[in-house]
Amino acid sequence: MADVVTELKGRIDKTLDDLRRDLTKVRTGRASPNLLDGIRVDYYGTPTPLSGVANITSPEPRLIVIKPWEKSVLKEIEKAIREANLGINPMNDGEIIRLPFPPLTEERRKEIAKQVKTKGEEHKVAIRNIRRDSNEVIKAQLKDKKITEDDSKRLTEKVQKETDDGVKKVDEIISKKEKEVMEV
Questions:
Q1: Taking the model in full, what pTM does it have?
Q2: 148 near 134, Cβ under 8 Å?
Q3: How far apart are CA 34 and CA 157, in angstroms?
């Protein structure tokens, strides 16, 4: 009976984790190595995560430095970064690749903030879909006489409370990220 609520909580937590992971890839005013998380480099014919072929550091707030373990991979890393469309021009000096981040314009900040809001809305919809699924399970259990009317009502209220908490957490995560993006 309480399995429905436990499963709901687990699925909401996964949705929140997914949102946090998505937002690490959103560019703010600072250079963060997390921006490069999704980039794969062709390493001897195998798509390999960038972090698997190079050391990635951020020595300054507006700079990421990529030092490959093998110089032969430099061109492939540069190509992968260009194809990732980050809006950053990699500078290759034959040893390392520097990614200088120009300061964001006010207009660009607003665009990024809008993208962040959109991601938040998508994740709220996902949470509401999880609620719908849980409520359908409760209705089925009531129909099959596995739970009573009172249990059904109590579970539905718990499901709604967890959903509201999840949506509230999404709002908190989004507003924190928006503040980060709008920071000059």
A1: 0.72
A2: no
A3: 38
